[in-house]
Amino acid sequence: MKSLTVPPGYSEITATPMPAHRDEWEHRLLAHPNLLRDIASRVAGPFHLLYPPRVAANIRAIQRVFLESGVEGDIYYGKKANKSPSVVRACAETGAGVDVSSTGEFLSALRGGVRGVDLMVTGPAKSDQLLLLSANYGALIAIDDLDELARLTNLAIPARVLLRVLPPGSTSRFGMTDSELELALTLADTDLIRLEGFSFHLQGYDVLPRAELAGRLIDRCLAARGPDRPFATISIGGGFGVDYLPAQAWETFLEGVNPRWFHGDRAPHPESYYPYHCPIPGPAMLAAVLAHGNLGERLRSAGIRLAIEPGRALLDQAGCSVFQVQGVKVRRAHGIPYMILTVNGTSLSLSEQWFDSEYLPDPVLWPQYPGAVTPTCVSGASCLEEDMLSWRRIPLPRAAATDDLLIYPNTAGYQMDSNESSFHDLPIPPKIVLRDVSAERSFDWELEVPGTVD
């Protein structure tokens, strides 16, 4: 183990602590004397852990909001957030649908037990193959443009359709303008196209614009209704925030963040950070949307269902990513020593770093025991200077040593596999599915094979 004597001024180059919220299952995992080490030795590389019961709990929490509000609602899991079949199974078991954007995602959802009628098909310029598959299985298709509508019509088979709206003032490449929507209503005047409503997606995580646009679409639905045109669904897309960190930790970080906290003085632009503290996340955000402007009451009165397409919010605290330390070195910044760890994987397995940003929740150093707080950066095992899992100098509770484990928390939403790559012929980290052994309050685990279902 390399020792590091840190002078009192180490805080000048060290970020503030960013301790993540932790679920009960994670406390049990970290307290287990050998489970993490056992998995690490069997896998012989980095790996991702998934705990599907938390996904089910997140779905049920949103379902309760719909039930308590009296609004008919549909949840479609945004599958792009995580490829794991175990998440799809949790959706099937709890009555949630799945939002898919490719034939691969569509077929994977079917294999996981989700019915075709419980699939929402989104994305631009869908292939004829995906449109045909969607229509044949009775999926709900969010049509993005007039060409796509024409191609669907030319298939000459019945199809369920939402028309995707370009939000007012938006420069998005997705959705249709008011004039295009009017033309779509004319072009879809056929017995084969069942117009069920409208959809939209907004960037960011604000309640107000979602509630206001949904409110305007209620009026549009009522005006467009007719025979074989129920217009009884509005989908407001995703963007339901996740609360990774306590408010105080996030506020302290934002107040003090500066380049000296990062390796090479390389700090991301402040606007690139995900908002790691969210005061009204997931279910609370849905409740706030329904409460704004009496939206829930208006939906009930108009007989309109509200569909949502959360991804990250359904994966909150449902998984973590584990890397093994395989090298330790000491460097200096502004005359103050700090550690750089090299782990047995790359930042391609922690996707936020590849969006000119940084994944900020602190990793847990395992095994856990007392020591001297040590400013530490984490690098990947590739030959690229930019391959850093954490540019930020994290105040680890002790000096790390070779073969220690670093557990990055709450990574199931987008971090695990959005940018996975076998660069350098390094293995793509596998997913390990944890199951409770209730009698012992411990876990059983299995290696998940991609694309398969039990």
Structural overview:
By secondary structure, the chain is an alpha/beta fold. It folds into 2 domains: 8-51 and 318-448, Lyase, Ornithine Decarboxylase, Chain A, domain 1, CATH 2.40.37; 52-243 and 278-314, Alanine racemase (TIM Barrel, Alpha-Beta Barrel), CATH 3.20.20. 28% of the residues lie in helices and 22% in strands. It has helices at residues 24-31, 35-43, 52-69, 85-94, 103-111, 128-137, 146-154, 178-187, 207-224, 247-256, 282-291, 295-302; strands at residues 47-50, 73-78, 97-100, 119-121, 140-143, 159-164, 193-199, 233-235, 305-308, 319-333, 336-343, 364-366, 374-379, 388-396, 405-409, 431-437, 442-448. Strands 1, 10, 11, 12, 13, 14, 15, 16 and 17 form a 9-stranded mixed β-sheet that branches. Helix 5 links the parallel strand 3 and strand 4. Helix 3 packs parallel to helix 4 (85-94), helix 3 (52-69) runs parallel beside helix 11 (282-291) and helix 9 runs parallel beside helix 12 (295-302). The longest helix is centred in the N-terminal third of the chain and has 18 residues, at 52-69. It is elongated.
